[in-house]
Specification:
Chain lengths: 348, 260, 383
């Protein structure tokens, strides 16, 4: 493998139902930073059926070039034809970096492709940067420059590791949704669009899609929720959880609770956070009227952002909260819901 | 039908994460368990065995101590256990791991290979799909329901906002979600029987069609540049304001952190 | 002498612990509060073979040793004394005598479904006038053609009404022993639903409130002749030998209760703050815990030793008596101290130690009071 041959930062521009997924724009935003550091271009790889028209959107979000693989076999996501498409692009165009979203599609496609093109893949990255490997010079080992350094949490978020892929190309990463920033779209921006079809011949690896069932929003497992609005005994009554549910709805979050609430019979056990309940790690955890017993904290302290509202200024929950608000939840929460509604509407 | 289930022994990160006084992870103090997604995969295999009749073989790669999860799987009802262990396999990333396991699986007959979606220590979700690539068979990731129909499997494959009902010809590989089912318990008698059975131990020489350059630390394309245990964060800010100011305070913080 | 458990036993313990934590603990408070027999838990345990752990596989059991069975009762009792005694009474007092004294037909008919957990077992020896003094029996059985006719009543019967199969003791005549007339006692297998077999009042108890404790009433209850268990007239020996095993089960229950209370208390003293520090930081707490833990450990050794004795010795009355005597007294002492260390909260229903202390008391009483155990032990010493 001649590493020098591999150039450019590539992004798998995931689309579903011919609509580009938000992750694709986020990846383009990051790819632009990386391309700048490497003095190279950003290429989006768009795979699907009848999707050529989407290329302009990718240009607006930062793609200099769009490679379109358009084929009837690619109508709905299936591992094999998509892996064939992306692997063929990699083999032909030889990108230096290949970014894929850590979505239900990307986390299937990424590993299959990486195995096919025989390179490393770092999963679920939260930080990507260009730097040296090894980070510090090591006697007797050549320090390589302009490497993609991929940082990711592991061990249930208890450790973080920075990974490089120094001797194989492309350097592949799947990236967590919601972490990278998209750029402000540049209206009217155009990219070089190149169509490429490696040919698709169904074989035993092509699975058949019998049915596509779009999910009606079910109750989300609190362990999968990105935003949790969690209530404790301080909420006062099962009826009063309504104000938490309203807040959760505005943020697209889910309601959870402390053990005291389950013991009181206000909420079912599957919503309980803590040592005897579930361990959660949402992006945002609201602890509302929760004092913060050790058992509870053990189940939520790894949340990215913890916001606590409690009238007791000495409540232990404030020892783990990033943002603690001392006050009456009955006064604050409904107002917060309204304020967020306004703020979200304004941002749209 | 012959089903192979790939399982991994992992530290129990749920509920029992232990820290050293300096805030680093105390790995020695943590118990090991069978990876939850793998256990769901095993349960799925055992249900297929109950339903259609099947021989279930569990395979794990790891230190000799990983034998424990094979015994556990056998106490739940798996028929055979294979431990792939060798010093030269240590330090493997997902590429080298999947290469190793594929090398082991080439010795076996199988209609179905089931792996967990991901392990709770690495959280990569890569090894299953990579094994399928090495073995040149179809993969169905994120399975939430599995049925067998003739020479095919019918699987509900989960996505964020939908699921696909997929049909694949066997042999094929499926990665299981822990939501797939509630794994059964072992039985007391099953435990004692499991310890009476032989476990097959394979080393480097038993791997089929595998190049040395693709194994272990040296065969891993990804290299760790830096690893650190996440230091626990302490208390953040605490404010006492009137309700309206409290609301603005929280909204500002959510904006600052790009939540809204 | 090696005090480490085998890997099999370690894994079995992990299984019992996981089951207890996930399936039993969440119900413990409710089962106590509402005095409800945990039927669903029993069904789950049946499916997993927990109701036939020491029964050989050919009779539908798990084929494990007494130690494995003991660990099961121990782990269940750590979180719920009620669940512990249900398994203990079923296994030690019903499966065991049928396994030991039953005919092949009786084993096939009764032991197999019992061990598989399809049926639940109970044991009826105690009567209003015959508790510690088992010779004071009044229930009679008279052979009439091909049937035994039972009349009388039994009280304080664990698993009463919930059980399907009962091992019952009754007088079958008088025999002369050293010039004195003595009651001849025999044992029988009686099925629930047999005409003439009814249940009296359900007892309201201080502890193990979810276990179903009933009076059994026999009024011209006719059972087949072949339901005589063991030889006619050997009932007293069967009862005593069965109770030796039963005591190991109750000792395990007591051990579990003590361990559960200790673990709960260790957690609590690490969190509860008084005078600006956790109560675990006070030397009084530390010393109390040290004593509690030491006694729990000693109790465990006696219980495990008794279990091993049952596996390897023909007679293990003294081992069983010592294990039960000590474990029960430790259970009472440790749970009482646990309540004390919890302070006011320990006296409140919401806190598990309150229930554990109530549950512990019975272990000093049933299947032979502590006084009876002392008689057994000293009797052997002075023989």
């Amino acid at each position: 493998m001649n590493l020098e041959e591999y150039k450019g930062v590539y992004v798998f521009a995931q689309q579903v139902d011919n609509e580009i997924s938000s992750i694709a724009f986020e990846l383009l935003g990051k790819a632009k930073d990386l391309a700048k550091d490497l003095n190279t271009e950003v290429t989006a790889v768009l795979v699907g059926c009848g999707i050529k028209g989407l290329a302009d959107q990718l240009a607006e979000y930062g793609a200099d070039k769009v490679i379109v693989v358009d084929d009837p076999e690619l109508k709905d996501y299936r591992t094999e034809p998509y892996a064939h498409a992306l692997a063929s692009v990699i083999n032909k165009y030889k990108p230096e970096i290949m970014l894929v979203g850590a979505t239900a599609i990307g986390r299937d496609l990424g590993p299959r492709v990486s195995a096919r093109v025989a390179t490393g893949l770092t999963a679920d990255c939260t930080v990507l940067e260009i730097g040296d490997f090894p980070l510090q010079p090591v006697p007797g080992q050549e320090q390589l420059h302009n490497q993609l350094l991929m940082t990711r949490p592991a061990f249930g978020g208890n450790t973080i590791a920075t990974i490089a892929c120094p001797y194989n190309r492309p350097q592949m990463a799947t990236v967590r949704a919601g972490v990278m920033q998209k750029i402000e779209p540049i209206k009217g921006a155009k990219a070089v669009v190149e169509e490429f079809n490696p040919g698709f011949t169904p074989d035993h690896k092509y699975v058949e899609i019998l049915e596509i069932v779009k999910a009606v929003t079910e109750t989300v497992d609190i362990m999968d929720a990105k935003i949790l609005v969690s209530g404790g005994r301080g909420v006062g009554s099962p009826e009063n959880f309504k104000i938490l549910e309203d807040l959760a709805e505005v943020l697209g979050g889910t309601v959870s609770c402390s053990r005291a609430v389950v013991d009181a019979g206000w909420k079912p056990k599957d919503l309980q956070v803590g040592q005897t309940g579930k361990t959660v790690r949402p992006n945002v955890y609201f602890a509302i009227g929760i004092s913060g017993a050790i058992q509870h904290v053990a189940g939520m302290e790894e949340s990215d952002i913890i916001i606590a509202i409690n009238k007791d200024a000495d409540a232990p929950i404030f020892d783990v909260a990033d943002y603690g608000v001392v006050g009456d939840l009955n006064k604050i929460v409904p107002k917060l819901t309204e304020a967020l509604k306004t703020a979200i509407a304004a941002a749209k | 039908m012959k089903i192979v289930v790939c399982i991994k022994q992992v530290p129990d990160t749920k509920g029992g994460v232990k820290f050293n006084p300096d805030g680093t992870l105390d790995r020695g103090a943590m118990l090991t368990i069978m990876n939850p997604d793998d256990k769901a995969g095993l349960e799925a295999a055992l249900r297929l065995k109950d339903q259609y009749g099947a021989e279930v073989t569990v395979v794990t790669m790891g230190l000799p101590k990983a034998e424990e999860v094979l015994r556990e799987a056998m106490a739940m009802g798996a028929d055979n256990g294979i431990l792939v262990t060798d010093r030269v396999l240590g330090g493997a990333d997902t590429w080298a791991t999947s290469t190793t396991i594929a090398g082991a699986l080439r010795n076996l007959e199988y209609d179905l290979i089931i792996t967990g979606r991901q392990a709770i220590d690495g959280d990569t979700a890569q090894v299953g799909p990579q094994i399928s690539e090495h073995l040149n068979i179809p993969v169905i990731s994120y399975a939430q329901n599995i049925k067998v129909e003739g020479d095919s499997v019918i699987v509900e494959r989960q996505y964020e906002d939908r699921y696909h009902v997929l049909k694949a010809k066997m042999p094929c590989l499926i990665t299981a979600l822990s939501e797939l089912n509630e794994p059964r318990y072992m039985t007391p008698g099953g435990i004692f029987d499991a310890y009476k059975k032989e476990i097959t131990v394979w080393g480097r020489k038993d791997l089929k069609d595998v190049d040395d350059s693709n194994l272990g630390l040296n065969g891993s394309p990804t290299k760790i540049a830096k690893a650190s245990d996440k230091v626990r964060k302490g208390a953040g800010e605490k404010v006492t304001l009137d309700p309206d100011e409290s609301v603005s305070y929280i909204v500002d913080k959510l904006k600052e952190k790009h939540v809204i | 002498m090696d005090f480490t458990l085998s890997k099999e036993h370690e894994m079995a313990r992990a299984l019992f612990k996981e089951f207890a934590e996930k399936e039993v603990k969440p119900l413990a408070q409710e089962v106590d509060e509402t005095e409800t027999f945990p039927r669903e838990t029993v069904e789950k345990m049946a499916k997993l073979g927990f109701l036939g752990i020491p029964v050989p596989k050919e009779y539908g059991g798990q084929g494990c040793d007494p130690l494995t069975y003991v660990m099961c009762v121990e782990e269940l009792s750590k979180v719920c004394g009620t669940t512990g005694v249900i398994v203990s009474a079923h296994t030690s007092l019903c499966c065991d005598p049928i396994l030991t004294y039953g005919t092949e037909e009786q084993k096939q008919k009764y032991l197999v479904p019992l061990a598989k957990g399809e049926k639940l077992g109970a044991f009826g020896l105690t009567e209003p006038g015959a508790g510690t003094d088992a010779q004071g029996q009044q229930t009679k059985a008279v052979l009439d053609g091909d049937e035994w006719v039972l009349n009388g009543s039994k009280c304080f019967i664990t698993n009463g009404k919930e059980a399907d199969v009962y091992v019952i003791f009754a007088i079958t005549g008088m025999v002369e022993k050293r010039g004195r007339m003595q009651k001849e006692i025999s044992s029988f297998i009686v099925e629930k639903g047999t005409p003439g077999f009814t249940f009296g009042t359900k007892e309201k108890k201080m502890g193990i409130r979810g276990s179903s404790t009933y009076e059994l009433i026999f009024t011209d209850c006719r059972i087949p002749k072949e339901n005589l268990l063991g030889q006619q007239g050997k009932g007293f020996n069967i009862a005593m030998h069965t109770l030796d095993g039963g005591r190991i089960g109750i000792a395990s229950q007591a051990l579990g209760l003590a361990e559960g209370a200790l673990e709960t208390t260790i957690q609590y003293v690490k969190e509860r703050k008084q005078f600006g520090r956790t109560i675990g930081a006070f030397q009084n707490t530390q010393f109390q815990l040290a004593d509690m833990a030491t006694k729990v450990q000693a109790a465990q050794m006696l219980v495990y030793k008794a279990a091993m004795a049952k596996a390897t010795q023909k007679v293990y009355s003294v081992e069983a008596a010592m294990a039960k005597l000590y474990a029960a007294e430790v259970a009472m002492e440790v749970t009482t101290k646990a309540v004390q260390l919890h302070g006011g909260y320990g006296y409140i229903r919401e806190y598990d130690v309150e229930r554990m202390m109530r549950d512990a008391k019975i272990t000093e009483i049933y299947e032979g009071t502590s006084e009876v155990q002392r008689m057994v032990i000293s009797g052997a010493l002075l023989k």
